[in-house]
Amino acid sequence: MADAYSLVLVGGRILDPKTNRDEVVDIGIFDGKIVEIGRNLDTSRAEDAIDLSGKWVIPGVIDPHVHISSWIGEYPGLRMMASEGVITALDMAGPPESVWKNVKEHGSGMHIACLDAITQGDQEEESPSKGRIGEKSIGRRIASALERGALGVKILGGHYPLTPETTARIIREAKRQGSYVAFHAGTIRTGSNLEGMREAIQLSDGNPLHLAHINSYCRGYVKDPHLETYEALQLLKGASHIWSESYVNVFNGTSGKCTNGQILSQVTRTCCRVGGYSEDEVGLGKAIRDGFGHVTKMKGGMNVLVTGEEGYRYWKERGTDVTMSFPVNLLPVQIVLASAKDSNGSFIVDAFSTDGGGIPRNTMVRHALDLVRLGVLSPLEMAQKLSTRTAIMLGLKSKGTLSVGADADVTVLDPQVGRACLGIAGGQIIMVEGRVVGRGGTLITSAKGVEKVKEWGLPFQIMDPAEALPRKQF
Ligand SMILES: [Zn+2]
Known about the structure:
Blueprint: E1 7-16, E2 21-30, E3 33-38, E4 49-51, E5 56-59, E6 61-67, H1 76-83, E7 86-91, H2 96-106, E8 108-118, H3 122-126, H4 135-147, E9 152-155, H5 164-176, E10 180-183, H6 194-204, E11 209-211, H7 225-237, E12 242-247, E13 254-255, E14 258-259, E15 262-263, H8 266-274, H9 281-289, E16 294-299, E17 302-306, H10 308-317, E18 323-325, H11 331-339, E19 351-353, E20 356-357, H12 364-373, H13 379-394, E21 410-414, E22 419-425, E23 428-432, E24 435-436, E25 440-445, H14 450-454, E26 460-462
Parallel strand pairs: 1-4, 1-5, 6-7, 6-20, 7-8, 8-9, 8-25, 9-10, 10-11, 11-12, 12-19, 25-26
Antiparallel strand pairs: 1-2, 2-3, 5-21, 13-18, 14-15, 16-17, 16-18, 21-22, 22-23, 23-24
Helix pairs in contact: 4-5, 5-6, 6-7, 7-11, 9-10
Zinc ion (ZN) is lined by residues 65, 67, 92, 355.
């Protein structure tokens, strides 16, 4: 028995996919770690104890795809995620400095890692070699991302496409440098759709890759969305080096930015087209006024979606530079991607995600619980997709499990209400009944990023990105 506990969680139903534990037991926490699991822990030796009768206790929820930088999402995302029970999150665009600054000034006590986007500079965009980045430049950009504290890089092909050759080179170079790499599929040859996804797997050429938000490639842009979903799952089944997530929300996320009357993001153009609007600034404005395009706006410290005249005015006020959402994800597709398994019983899409943070759709925990209520997932399967498998994907070895020695990251769910009611990060309570009480946060970086990350004066954890995205066993 441990000598003392800072906190004991008493009488909750513990769901731990890693040890296959599903039983009512207590959890003892000390110094940021789980130190004991068992019946009737001695709460007289605890500084604090919480009765969790009737509640479900799962390893701290990890969201592998969020946006909380000044570029995309912004700082309210930190509180928005924590209020939904998320404990650890990976920002998918950076820049790292902005992510760390937001954690420092507006943090909600969470554990935060980030990737740095590889896009083209403005000058390159103007040049005739559009979409191309030289070999040396790719190497430098990845090295710089790691040195600045990111775990690696994100390729934003679906929005800002590169050539297939440049894309393949980035994935190869990431592997060589021991860097994490994620890809929103699409190149100048394909798009953010099923063809882009098929191409992405080819371009990865057996190298580890995080293929972002599979739902984006199953929106019916190439053929029937149900057929696309089936084909997307077939593609993933054969690819043991590809890790993926999907989000469970009707809204996508993209940019409303226009220059010289033209929409910059390919995704936004496609949304206008499928909504029956012209693919330019005029068409986008009309889509917003009509209530099809939704604009992200900060209200009361949180980001919300506004549309119609209010959305249109805000988009104009901000010179079109806003985050936007369109209702393009079909519910049956969301459910199939969330639950599909291969013949060994493993989930084909590895993890739940939100692509949220500051984009208001942090609904993954609620909707995972909905899927349990519907009988689509068992409670243990839900915990696997919300945390355990995600931790393996991200190479976070001390997370994703409720076992002795693991980080004391815990999310408590209220199955009656259908949402998270308590969040604990490294033994500290950061959320109670949806109210965020955590501050600051812990930065997750690699050995190469430690020096820069230290400058922020926040606690940090070191992991090895080369151990993320391990080859899957079938
Ligand atoms: Zn994203």
